[in-house]
Specification:
Layout: E1 9-11, E2 33-40, E3 52-60, H1 69-83, E4 88-91, H2 98-106
Parallel strand pairs: 3-4
Antiparallel strand pairs: 1-2, 2-3
Amino acid sequence: MADATGPVRRVADVGRGDDLPRPRRGGRAGAARLACLRVGPSGPTWDLGETVGDLESLSIAADARGTGIGTELIEHCRDRLVALGARWWTVSVVAANGRATELYEREGFRPYVNFMLAPIR
């Protein structure tokens, strides 16, 4: 990843600290939550526009899951990307994480690329 002057920049403040939305849907106000966005060009394979977002990380404390905080963080991230001119964004999720997959699908994400992983040796 390049620094802030390069082609990819991380919107680090989108999900850390007091700039995060406060839970509206019954979540507890002090719940640990994190969202990290990466923003950059779409790359050579698919033309998705000048600016594409990647929801690099979304994490909610175990005792706050199912309260709507994840949905609110996604809404907050979406708003930030719209302000930056993005029309598309991506998220990666471990295949075994069914709850996260359901959340992302409710928010409009659909399978697009089959990302595979293998050990080197």
